Amino acid sequence: MKPIIAALPLALLLAACGGAGPPNQNHAEAEAGQGEGIVTLTSQQITTADIEVVSPTIGGNGGAIELPATLESDPQSTRIVAATVPGRVVELRRNLGDSVKRGETLAVLESREAASLQAEVQRAAAGAELARTTLARDEALYAKGFRPLREVEISHAAAKQANVALRLAREQVAASGGRGGSYNRIVIAAPISGRVIVRKAVLGQHFAADAADTELFRIAQLDRLSVTLSLSPGDAGRVRPGMAMQITAPGRSQTARISFVSPALDAETRQVPAIAILDNRNGQWRAGEPVTASIQLAGSNDGTIRVPLTAVQTVQARTVVFVRTDSGFRAVPVTLGRQDGAMVVVTSGLTGRERIAATNSFTLKSALGAAEAGHED
Question: Are 109 and 89 in contact (CB under 8 A)?
Answer without folding.
Answer: yes
